[in-house]
């Protein structure tokens, strides 16, 4: 749940990057961290990583500007994707305001993507949230590998596997090159902030 400080006119929102292990969640945050100005982007904290596998989570705070005179701060988190870290995922997901699901375009990861999305839906429902209540966008990552001879899932197949019942916006991306990274972040930020403002307005009447 967003932290709203009316005395400081500040809203703090939590966006979680979710998805199978090695799909590119940490790489998304690294790209944002490296390319955004220091005024916007705070220090990236990566907790307990080994090689390129996130064992706990990554955290990146952003100051994205003002809406309705309120300063908006967004905190980006990633979860560890490996099946055995479900308790950590549940912890990171607590109080979430928006989710980016990063799917891996590699053909061999087809079932891992589906399992991870099912796991997201289950973990949200354990918090009393249905997937339709939380702003969500999908990112089909590693599209740069289309140039290689590694078999990739066509976007139509990813849509069919993951987005048929959800019908949420999706973005093709390459987190290593940065393609689609800001488009994804912009859309989830917009949806998340809009959702928070609607909830606040519902409570205080504006
Ligand atoms: N070719 C390619 N590799 C990627 C892309 N995104 C991430 N990777 C690589 O995939 C591996 C796992 O990425 P990481 O961000 O740690 O995945 P996470 O487990 O979801 O956080 C790393 O070696 C990345 O360099 C991408 O868009 N294209
Ligand atoms: Mg990671």
Name some characteristics of this structure.
5 helices, globular, alpha/beta, 206 residues, binds magnesium ion, Rossmann fold, 8 strands, binds guanosine-5'-diphosphate, 8-stranded mixed beta sheet
Could you characterize the architecture of this molecule?
- The radius of gyration is 17 Å and the shape is globular.
- With 206 residues, it is of the alpha/beta class.
- The protein contains five helices and eight strands; from the N terminus they run E-E-H-E-E-E-H-E-H-E-H-E-H.
- It binds guanosine-5'-diphosphate and magnesium ion.
- The site of guanosine-5'-diphosphate has 20 residues, from helix 1 and strand 4.
The low-pLDDT segments are none
Q: What CATH architecture would you give?
A: 3-Layer(aba) Sandwich
The assigned structural class equals alpha/beta
Provide the helix percentage. 25-40%
Total number of strands: 8
Q: What is CATH's topology name?
A: Rossmann fold
Main sheet properties = 8 strands, mixed
Relative strand content: 25-35%
* Ligand inventory: guanosine-5'-diphosphate, magnesium ion
Number of domains: 1
**What's the CATH class, please?**
Alpha Beta
The average pLDDT value, as a whole number, equals 89
